[in-house]
Amino acid sequence: MQAMVFAAGLGTRLKPLTDTMPKAMVSVGGRPLLWRVLMGLRDAGVGRVVVNVHHFSGQITRYLADNDNFGMDIRISDETDRLLDTGGGLKKAAPLFCGDAPILIHNVDIMSNVQLASFYASAAGPDATLLVSERQTKRYLLFSADMRLVGWTNIETGEVRSPYPGLDPRSCRMYAFSGIHVFSPRLFPLMQPFPDKFGIIDFYLRACAQADIRGCLMPRLRLLDVGKLDTLAAAEEFVAGAGGGAGAAPVG
């Protein structure tokens, strides 16, 4: 297994904490968010991990070096000069992955009870598999009856984005994206026309008419986006409820 952790974001919603540190180093339960994601990946059996860095990048690289990469094969994709967003970050990191094994991608600020090894195994086959939830939001991914990605909508504004003209969101299954997904290197050639900086969801929405991009809805999913100051208390409770470990109990 190989993985990528998106850790390059500015963390603006976590200010003033991120005025002096990257979001990845914000502490929850006495451990940085990055540690929690890495331990979940290590427990899942991931061999190589690519971590992209930008904001206070030196703090992340020193932390990993000081801890001998926690015994993992960790490669750094350096975006110090320019933040490339999630899609551009993945495209830049492409040479750091090994072979054609699918890549498990995890946002650094997401905590969940997902059993990552099971999710990775279940994602074998499609070109990409996006873990989704029934979380209430304004922005939803749209899927066909067989959970193939067909578009995106903002239910507040009525905006629809899809490669399928005239797509009616009411005819689709609507789910929120979790920030955890599995990406096949088979998709890298489709990224070549994209600019250096772009979002991964923008890519998926353009590629879904050509590639097999699926959604995966897991039962009893607990998911927490630790992206804002007012979620830190909930994150502490989340960790306490999991016994203080890297994550929570497995889904299943």
Question: How do the helices and strands line up, and which of them pair or pack?
Answer:
Blueprint: E1 2-6, E2 27-28, E3 31-32, H1 33-44, E4 48-53, H2 57-66, E5 73-78, H3 85-93, E6 103-107, E7 110-112, H4 116-122, E8 128-133, E9 139-143, E10 149-154, E11 160-161, E12 173-183, H5 188-191, H6 200-207, E13 213-217, E14 223-225, H7 232-241
Parallel strand pairs: 1-4, 1-6, 4-5, 8-13
Antiparallel strand pairs: 2-3, 6-12, 7-14, 8-12, 9-10, 9-12, 10-11
Organism: Marseilla massiliensis
Pfam family, one: NTP_transferase
InterPro entries: GlmU-like, NTP_transferase_dom, Nucleotide-diphossugar_trans
Through-space gap between termini: 21 Å
Task: Please describe the biggest sheet, giving its number of strands, its sense, and whether it closes into a barrel.
Answer: 10 strands, mixed
Low-confidence segments, given as residue ranges, are 243-252
Count of individual beta strands: 14
- Find the CATH superfamily: Spore Coat Polysaccharide Biosynthesis Protein SpsA, Chain A
Could you tell me the radius of gyration in angstroms? Answer: 17 Å
Number of domains: 1
Shape: globular
Helix count equals 7
Amount of helix: 10-25%
User: What is the SS-derived class?
Assistant: alpha/beta
Textual characterization of the structure:
The chain is α/β, with parallel strands linked by helices. Helix 3 packs across helix 6. It has helices at residues 33-44, 57-66, 85-93, 116-122, 188-191, 200-207, 232-241, and strands spanning 2-6, 27-28, 31-32, 48-53, 73-78, 103-107, 110-112, 128-133, 139-143, 149-154, 160-161, 173-183, 213-217, 223-225. Strands 1, 4, 5, 6, 8, 9, 10, 11, 12 and 13 form a ten-stranded mixed β-sheet that branches. Strands 2-3 form a two-stranded antiparallel sheet. Strands 7-14 form a two-stranded antiparallel sheet. The longest helix has 12 residues, at 33-44. Strand 2 and strand 3 (31-32) form a beta hairpin. It starts with a strand and ends in an 11-residue tail after the last helix.
